């Protein structure tokens, strides 16, 4: 009797399916009916040559926008000259133009510089957006003169009366400076390093226009 019960229990245990473990995943066969892409439906290939002009145009547009953002064109607000000023310009400006060795006080980023043709300017900052060889027009001047005559602006001279151009020579750096900062009753010492950059300009030309430039 006991042997038959044991055999019956073993048969039931063998026939009863065991529950799958919690950490096992069901194995699913890969379906062979998955649609595949046709050989004719290929991704269009775009050559790099077709994109090169657009990329160059985009780069040039970005550079122009950056330059315009750095140095926006701000027109001068010139008040109409009086009758005495017009008469003085019409009479004395040709004499000022006839004398050589003209000079002017150019304003670059709000700083005045007394220059003449051939002078070099060392700006106390690094001018962004320029490279060596660029030609800049300085259109802000408060004084324009020669040996015997001087034209004074209020505050600036009309940019139509003169033309001053400067060539960018490059940038310079000073030697590295180290300053030791200490505080009273403290043993710690802090080192502050500084290395300033400068922009070099050379005044290439200074020309004075006649009274006809302003309609006199």
From TrEMBL:
GO CC terms, sorted: mitochondrial large ribosomal subunit
MF GO annotations: structural constituent of ribosome
Pfam families reported for this sequence: Ribosomal_L21p (PF00829)
Family statement drawn from the similarity comment of this UniProt entry: Belongs to the bacterial ribosomal protein bL21 family.
Protein name: Large ribosomal subunit protein bL21m
Species per Swiss-Prot/TrEMBL record: Apiospora kogelbergensis
